[in-house]
Amino acid sequence: MSTVELRHIITEHLSHIEDASFLNAIKTILESKVSEGEYKLSDYQKKRVDVARNELKRNMTTSHNDLQIEIDQWLNTK
Asked: Is the distance from CB of 66 to CB of 73 less than 8 angstroms?
């Protein structure tokens, strides 16, 4: 598994964690590993940023509340 794939998986998992103390611990670990200076985006990350910016310009966004409703509906059908 590539570094980019691992980052994507970790990001997905982190987005579902609500435990603030756990997230603070992860933040501390990450801050100890992140090198100072300019952060370099991968080609994949640059593409995702461009896609997101274009979606924002075209008002193709979803509110948090609408997304929560969609997730709840999806989970209730499982």
From this structure: no
Geometric angle at alpha carbon 7, from 17 and 41, rounded to 5°: 125
- CA–CA separation, 8 vs 6, rounded Å? 5
Q: State residue 69 phi and psi, 5-degree precision.
A: -60, -45
**Alpha-helix residue ranges (DSSP H) falling in 15-42:** 20-33
Q: Where are the domains of the chain?
A: 1-37, 41-78
What are the pLDDT digits (tens) for 13-40?
A: 999 999 999 999 998 888 877 766 677 8
Q: pTM for this one?
A: 0.42
Looking up tokens 């598994």, which residue turns up?
A: 1
* Lookup: tokens for 1: 């598994």
How far apart CA 44 and CA 8 sit, in angstroms, is 10
